Design the sequence.
């Protein structure tokens, strides 16, 4: 048996769609394990870790959003990239999906070629940007830890999503400099994803809340982008 391009776990309760996607991806050289429910998926995920997860949101029993949150809280499974596939196309749903820690969000109906391109992009990025045990970054009283995806302020340890971490890391590493929304998008999402500027604004608002009194250090520069001020 020839070596596959990667193992994909696919959670989808629509039979026709799941069969089409599975056959297409297998034809492209991937190994696909399909699950009709979140419960069936959870029975398998701890014994065999996939390279990527395709996750529908509207599932019977445990829904996809809760599954995504659960996976991103697990020390081992949080490193597995997730692409959400769903009929929910409202911009708020997209942002919420990404906020849970998903790496990409594809709205149904979609073309298999688009899905394949997104899979390749996410897998390429996950391999080139591993989370290591030495991923501490300190700026003043703030400490970012990429391994645990946390922000420490004094005695407070605040959980971050991967995208929140990447955005805050980029802002702090460019302390005092104005960075555009496009620069933030490229750093946090990469150039292959289809994400709007509005997503950046929503994430910045969430990060400010988590920073508490330090939130005002992220300054909006009208018409230009954002700037992280020194203490």
Sequence:
């Amino acid at each position: 048996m020839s070596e596959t391009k990667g193992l994909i776990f696919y959670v989808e309760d629509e039979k026709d769609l799941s069969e089409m996607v599975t056959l297409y991806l297998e034809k492209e050289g991937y190994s696909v394990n399909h699950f009709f429910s979140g419960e069936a998926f959870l029975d398998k995920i701890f014994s065999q870790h996939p390279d990527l997860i395709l996750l529908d949101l509207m599932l019977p029993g445990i829904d996809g959003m809760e599954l995504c949150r659960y996976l991103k809280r697990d020390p081992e499974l949080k490193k597995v990239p997730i692409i959400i596939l769903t009929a929910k196309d409202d911009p708020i749903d997209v942002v919420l999906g990404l906020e849970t820690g998903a790496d990409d969000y594809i709205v149904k109906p979609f073309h298999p070629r688009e899905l394949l391109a997104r899979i390749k992009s996410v897998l390429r990025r996950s391999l080139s940007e591993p989370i290591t045990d030495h991923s501490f970054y300190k700026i003043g009283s703030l400490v970012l830890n990429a391994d645990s995806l946390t922000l420490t302020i004094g005695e407070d340890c605040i959980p971050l999503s991967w995208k929140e971490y990447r955005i805050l890391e980029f802002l702090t590493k460019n302390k005092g400099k104005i960075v555009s929304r496009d620069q933030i998008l490229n750093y946090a999402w990469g150039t292959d994803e289809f994400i709007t500027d509005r997503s950046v604004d929503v994430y910045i608002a969430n990060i400010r809340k988590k920073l508490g009194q330090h939130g005002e250090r992220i300054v909006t520069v009208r018409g230009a982008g954002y700037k992280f001020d020194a203490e």
